[in-house]
Amino acid sequence: MTARCTDQENMKSIRLSGNPRILVTRTDRIGDLVLTTPVLKALRGRFPKAWIAALVFIEHRDIVRGNPYIDEVILYDKKGSEKTIWGQILFAGTLRKKRFDLAVHCHATNRVHLAALLAGIPVRIGYDRRSPWALTHVHPYDKKLGQRHEAEYLFDLLEPLGISMPARLETFVPVTERSRDSLRNLLFHLRVPNDMPWIVLSPAASDVTKMWPAEKFAELAAKLGREMKCVFLAIGSEADRPVVESLREKSPVPVIDLGGRLTLGMLGVLLKRSRLLVSNDSGPVHIASAVGCPVVSIFGRYEAGLGPNRWKPIGRACRIVAKDVSGVPEPERKFTYIDQITVQEVCSAARDLLEETGREGIKT
């Protein structure tokens, strides 16, 4: 087993065979997983004959199933079969049978670090947090500084493998025929018009401090609806349905409620077909960017590790709307300014992006 590298040793280089078995883990939020997909492409480029597996939450499987750069998707059910200690032990046993040579942990968790250790994976790369003693190669956890984008930070983990960050980062989310058929059937049932542009609104987020008020989304829909003929669709998970319903009820123009009705695969198809997504800082932003849908992303939090410098969508058809706090003394700054972002600011960003992408003929 490779000796654990300290920060001072600066992640010693790693030599692998020409066809290694590589495990990449990312068990956290949807957008974080999407932003990890450039790592999968880079590993495939460096090791074209490798067997590459992605370990993800079971509920996020649509984000990576069908990804051309991986050979296997391993599902982790934190709320089910892997919830207990015994479940963890059995899961580690399953990993052991797969005989991986390398694990790259793109998000630090005690459970996954321990599983890779118990699985006997000889080389385990990750960050200096949450059981770093279970790793062989440890990189300082500097993401919280927010000096670079999340996708850029991840390439620090690949440096010992001789992999550099590409000049252009691109995310990838597969769009499958099965998901196309499922979405087509749902929208037919809901009688969603096909002869007008679709504008998707995403009013929910993982934290209330990231959520632009539903009434402002409703006012935005009214403004855009006066300027162009279009169909508004509101999205969210099952847990987000109250927020989506609030938006629909407050809107003076019709908004089709898709809250809790879409799989992640269906969401990818919807966004690929849509003219624009307006969203809080959340997973749909990154799915939209990956499938080529223009996106306006609203940021309320300014702290470096939480703001747009680290979490903005990757892609040229994107606009960020955030409050400029440079003139506010740091001791006086609030944690979030989401309520202070105006409808006019978001509407202007949406209007400019619609005009620009229409002029350039970007396929959405």
What does the model show?
Helices cover 33% and strands 16% of the residues. With 364 residues, the chain is an alpha/beta fold. It folds into 2 domains: 7-161, 3-Layer(aba) Sandwich (Rossmann fold); 177-360, Glycogen Phosphorylase B (Rossmann fold). Strands 3-2-1-4-5-6 form a 6-stranded parallel sheet, with helices on both faces. Helix 7 (214-227) packs across helix 12. The protein is globular, with a radius of gyration of 21 Å.
Task: Describe the SSE topology.
Blueprint lengths: L20 E6 L3 H5 L2 H10 L4 E7 L14 E5 L8 H14 L3 E4 L4 H9 L4 E5 L9 E3 L10 H5 L22 H13 L8 E5 L11 H14 L3 E4 L6 H10 L4 E3 L6 H10 L2 E5 L2 H9 L3 E5 L8 H4 L6 E5 L20 H18 L4
Parallel strand pairs: 1-2, 1-4, 2-3, 4-5, 5-6, 7-8, 7-10, 8-9, 10-11, 11-12
Quick gist of this model?
The protein is α/β, with parallel strands linked by helices and 364 residues long.
Give descriptors for this structure.
Rossmann fold, disordered N terminus, six-stranded parallel β-sheet, 12 helices, 33% helix, 364 residues
Order of helices and strands: EHHEEHEHEEHHEHEHEHEHEHEH
State the secondary-structure class: alpha/beta
Number of helices: 12
User: What is the CATH class name of the largest domain?
Assistant: Alpha Beta
